[in-house]
Write a structure and sequence with these properties.
5 helices, alpha/beta
């Protein structure tokens, strides 16, 4: 099976770093691309500078509350293009209350995860998506 590529759209560098470290501690070998804002996430998807070509991530962890543009902009771009229309998206929430508000919007996403996202949370998300052929790859100890 091929490695999957995760796109993490998270504006807080500390949370993104903690997430990367957590994944590293558990020897995650899938590719993880972090975008700290909406323009960079859109550049990644469109293949604009500094990226060489458009990308189609296999899974997106998306913080909705981003500075400047809202994360819904990234979600809209993903859902509006045929090549990314079906990419699973998990929204990152700050609290159960924030999750309830987002759920009431009926956004086209596959799930929600409380921040900070740890490896156990990622594994649970991926297990719920295994029907789509995803799995987390880990190196041998």
């Amino acid at each position: 099976m091929e490695q999957i590529e995760l796109l993490v759209v998270q504006d807080d560098p500390a949370e993104a770093l903690l997430m990367r470290e957590e994944f590293g501690d558990h020897r995650l070998v899938n590719r993880v691309q972090v975008a700290h804002d909406v323009p960079r996430a859109l550049a990644y998807l469109d293949g604009a500078a500094p990226f060489a070509q458009p990308a189609v991530p296999d899974l997106v962890l998306l913080d909705v509350n981003l500075p400047g543009h809202d994360g819904r902009t990234v979600l809209h771009r993903l859902r509006s293009r045929p090549e990314t229309h079906d990419v699973p998206v998990v929204l990152l929430t700050d609290s159960p209350a924030a999750e309830r508000i987002l759920r009431a919007e009926f956004l086209p996403v596959q799930g929600y995860a409380a921040k900070p996202v740890d490896f156990a949370c990622l594994a649970a998300i991926v297990r719920s998506l295994e029907v789509l052929g995803f799995e987390v790859w880990r190196t041998a100890p």
